[in-house]
Structure formats: C-alpha cells, structure tokens
Write a structure and sequence with these properties.
Low-confidence stretches: none
Organism: Bacteroides pectinophilus CAG:437
GO molecular function: glycosyltransferase activity
CATH class: Alpha Beta
Strand content: 15-25%
Number of domains: 1
Keywords: Glycosyltransferase, Membrane, Transferase, Transmembrane, Transmembrane helix
Protein name: Glycosyltransferase 2-like domain-containing protein
Structural class: alpha/beta
CATH architecture: Alpha-Beta Complex
Pfam families: Glycos_transf_2
CATH superfamily: Spore Coat Polysaccharide Biosynthesis Protein SpsA, Chain A
Length: 279
C-alpha cells in the first residue's frame, strides 16, 4: 500500500544532504534564487553541498559570498571542470544525511518540497527515491507544467527519463549501493537517465509525487539542440539498457533511435512537439 496522504507526518527529523554542481553560472540572480529556494524549505534539517566545478573567479567569489548566508551551506571546489556526474559523486562522498536531494543552479524548489518528499519516503520504505512533477518557467514566468508518471515502469524509459532529475530525493544508502553516477564521456548529458535505468534494473523502485513541488527552468521559445556526439552516446546508452531492461523488442528499438532522429527534425516541429508534451 502506498501512502501519499499530504497531511500525514512521520515526526522525523532525519538529515537531508542537498547536492548541487555549479559551473560558471554567471547570472547571479538566478543562482541566488536557486540557493534561496533551498534555504526557505519548511523542512530545515539539511546540509547544502555545492560543488564549484572549476568556475571562473567571479562565480567562485559569488559562491563564497552565498555560503555566508547560512551555516548549512558547504562549498566543495575544484580548480578544473570535471562535469556534473563527477561533481555530484564528490558531494555524495561528503554527504552525511540519510537522504540525498538533488538541485540545479537555475531551478527553484517550492517551500514544501523536502517536507513532502521525506514524508513520502518515510511512509513508503519500498521506494528508494522520490521525484515530483514540475512547473515550467523561463524569464517571462510560468508557461506550463510537466506531470510525471506516478510509478514508472521499465517501459516508461522508452521516450525519455520518467524522472525530473533535480527534483529527486534519494535514500542515501540506496544511491551509494548503486554506485552513484557513472562519470564517463559516454554518459555526459545523460548521467541521470543512466542512473535511473541502472537502479531500476537492479531492483530499486522510484515514485513521482504528482504535485508540482519544483520549478524547472526551460525557455518556451528555445529548442535545445544537443551536439551530435551526445546524441550518439545516448543512442548507445538506450540500446544497452533497453536490452537489459527487456524493453528493446518489439518496439523499443524504434525509441533507441529517438536522439538521432531529433537531430534532423526542423526547429518549428520540435517546438510544436515541446508544446504538446506539456500540460
């Protein structure tokens, strides 16, 4: 039985480790809003680990300034840029919370995100992580919402990841037992997709709260085009994991080619698809 009663409470005060990588986020207003949304959570027992992944001196100085806003913020730094997966793994290695929550440097967590997620995980031990649905916004404001599948199954990985990565809260022990993120050039730009498929393959289960407890920054007028090499890497990843998850046949092989197909679709059609995929 799944307990999603929003009014239920466990009375827990277990610690959350929030992990976020930053690389040259030069818009300090956006960065501040992201950090501030964590500091304003109704659930207050957390540490906020921010990994400065080789940012320029101006951004590095701003991160140090932000760390002075709250004693729960800890800055971890590298002189070189290693990529998101590496940054998150360093944060995981330094985290001492029983739960690990993701955050990105340009998004916003709504005030009761942590409270509702930890309440769900405490009441539903069969799940190893919990994501949320999200409001979509850009500099002009909120323009849509993305409602995620409540209980994703293997087939839900066919189109794209059924979890909004920066909205997810993990059980620390499950994330560590799974080996954390794979830091490889082959998983660049799809490290979360790989992690969720790998954990699902190993028997871990995730859940998505239907409430939009997160604001995900996505420009309504911008069709993001990844470089061809990243699309090729994702195609390889899909082929590998769709086979392992048992979803390659009869129709999964078509979705294996989805990243490559997207490279050749005209912008106006991609924009139309993007509009239709949001509520």
């Amino acid at each position: 039985m799944i307990s999603t009663n929003e009014r239920s409470t466990t009375g827990t005060n277990k610690k959350i480790s929030v992990i976020m990588g930053v690389y040259n986020q030069n818009n300090f207003r956006i960065l501040f809003d992201a950090v501030n949304s964590i500091l304003n959570q109704t659930y207050s027992n957390f540490e906020f680990l921010i990994y400065n992944d080789g940012s320029n001196p101006e951004v590095s100085e701003e991160l140090l300034r932000l760390s002075g806003l709250d004693k729960r913020i800890r800055i971890l730094s590298s002189a070189e840029n290693h990529g998101l997966a590496y940054a998150l793994n360093v944060c995981i290695d330094n985290a001492d919370g029983e739960y690990i929550a993701r955050m990105d440097d340009d998004d916003i967590s709504l005030p009761d995100r942590f409270e509702k997620q930890i309440n769900f995980l405490e009441n539903n031990p069969q799940y190893s992580w919990c994501g949320t649905s999200a409001l979509l916004f850009d500099n002009s404001g909120i323009w849509g919402r993305r409602i995620m599948v409540e209980i994703p199954e293997a087939a839900d990985y066919l189109r794209y990841s059924p979890y909004i990565h920066p909205s997810v809260m993990f059980r620390s022990d499950a994330l560590r037992k799974a080996g954390g993120y794979h830091s490889s050039v082959r998983t660049l730009r799809c490290e979360d997709y790989e992690l969720f498929m790998r954990m699902t393959m190993d028997g871990y289960k995730g859940f998505n709260l239907q409430l939009p407890l997160f604001m995900y920054r996505e420009d309504i007028n911008n069709v993001h085009r990844r470089k061809l090499r990243f699309r090729i890497d994702e195609t390889r990843l899909r082929l590998c994991y769709f086979r392992k998850l048992g979803i390659l046949f009869p129709f999964g092989w078509i979705y294996v080619l989805r990243p490559l197909a997207g490279f050749f679709i005209p912008d106006f059609l991609l924009h139309h698809i993007k509009r239709n995929e949001t509520a």
